[in-house]
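Sequence in, structure out. Go.
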Amino acid sequence: MRVPSRLLPSSPGFWRSPLRGPRFTSVLGLVLLVGVTVMFVTGLLSYAAYNPGLGGVNDRTPDKGLLGFYLFDWPTDPYWLYRLTQGVHVTLGVTLIPVLLAKLWSVVPKLFALPPVRSLAHALERITILLLVGGGLFEFTTGVLNVQLDYLFPGSFYPLHFYGAWLFFAAFLLHAALRVPLAVRTVRRARAQGNLLAPADEPADRPADAPADRPAAGATREQAGEPVAREADALVATRPDAPTVSRRGALWSVAGGSLLLLATTAGQSIGGSWRRTALLAPHGGEDPGSGPGAFQVNKTAAYAGITTAGTREDTWRLELRGPTRTVRLSRAQVRALPQYGAALPIACVEGWSTSDQHWRGVRLRDLAALAGEREAVDVYVESLQTHGTFRHAWLRANQVADPRSLLALEVNGADLTPDHGYPARVVVPAAPGVLNTKWVTRMTFGRP
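Output:
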């Protein structure tokens, strides 16, 4: 039995919503233009913060080639830098989900339009749309899974998200070059007419042959709004249903969804009393428990395979390796070295962070000197952790040299708890949390 053409997605009559139109799509597109660009830049900064140039142990995205052209030595000032950039990256990504879904909904008729290719320019646009839709869904989905579920997804999050981001953003830039001029003209035209947020039953989005859109005498095709009209042909329903909500209401609904996600997520990065508002964030809510060690952890001692036998004060040893000698110290001997304090947060790739915690321990640069290094150099830090990523990590010389970089023995006036890295852990200003290695057992100064 033959299906009537109007019942096929390729038929303009199949799509009946009166909300679709160039104005609705253009507003959402311009919001995504700014938001996705900020997300991409902060994502690249997050990758740079891992110091991938120091070696494969830090680099979870091998064979990046030219994609790593921008990498630089990650600074230690301001000390809250990673907390800010990654907090913005994750919070903005969650906040933009309603905008992304609304944008995809608004242009879905174009995905089924026939003929599939009308010209070379049209073919290029279709390819960018395919990459945009697929890449956008992939990047947002893997990002949310990493934040909410510690990444339950086939393959390694780091390379998939990194390469996917480059592919998605390349398509995004190409699509923006093709569509942003039209989106800007559409919004400007609607604002000039005073109907940017007109209700859905106001015929502001018309096909080209609508009488109200006929050009004035002597007007050029572009001045007459023909690009906008062609866009309307593809997006405006030819047989619209009766509206149940205005376009203004639809845009406010999208904005309300985004604001709700912002309000229930951002607190995990802001900290303090704001953390209680982060109801949808896995590390939101109030600080767990009470006492000096009552702040968030990502990996517990039990998860990392840390045993009491390996961390007892009378058996644990810190091994310092340098160019000319190796030194082994007990915890009592480490405690006997000059002790310094630093107030630093822990900030994680998942977007959560702690408020400033008061750490106390030995400066990394003093440990480098003890191992025979006359000046601060790169250091390779090894943990007692038995499995999982970042059991070992490299830190740059500028991180070792910073006087706030410590091998901490205490936090908030008490010994570290097992979950926070007892008997000793690294804390470095502005470094991702996974580079603040816990349960440290060996430090090798200088490149091996």
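Check: The two ends are 73 Å apart (CA to CA). The first helix runs from residue 22 to 49.
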